[in-house]
Amino acid sequence: MKKIQIFILGIAFYFLISNINFVDILSRPKPMEEIVQEEYFEKSYKNEFDSLFVLNYRDPIHTNISTSDYKIIEELLDELYKLELDKTERTGSYGIELWFRNEQGERMMVHIMKDGNIAIRTKTYDYIKDEENKVIKHEYTDSERKYYKITSGDLDIEDIQKIIDKIE
Q1: What is the DSSP string of 79-126?
Q2: In a 3-state reduction of DSSP, which class is residue 32?
Q3: How far is CA 93 from the centre of its chain?
Q4: Where do the structural domains in the chain lie, given as residue ranges?
Q5: 123-153 tens-digit pLDDT
Q6: What is the DSSP letter of 145?
Q7: Rounded CA separation 161/84 (Å)
Q8: Given this model, what pLDDT does residue 138 score?
């Protein structure tokens, strides 16, 4: 019994000294805010999106599906986090189109090109509403599409498709 008490005190002391947030360690899964703020995605091409929570998917035949299932979105973002990118010119035709949207109506589109490279752009919507709060008009700001070649990491379109196939 004494050994167990010493062990528990040792763990408590370790957390106290190392200043680790015990609640963060025990809470799983990660909230979306933490997922999209991972340093690598931010460094590569994250464009000030802080709470992505909806994914819209469109394939070359323009089949549209969407989900707010954070597990599916997390899997797709994890695939994108693995990549190192360098800017390039447009190199091929479009393949899969992924749209991520946050609560502010900002959207980030990731085109996975047929040649394996990717294109990224953002779109921000402004909604004009009447007195009854009904949308009467919407305008949007569209960023220039930026093309990237993958210099490190592997983007397997089949893996992406398997994740997307989980969307009901």
Answers
A1: HHHT-EEEEE---S-EEEEEEEE-TTSEEEEEEEETTS-EEEEEEEEE
A2: helix
A3: 23
A4: 29-164
A5: 776 777 788 877 777 676 776 777 777 777 6
A6: P
A7: 21
A8: 67
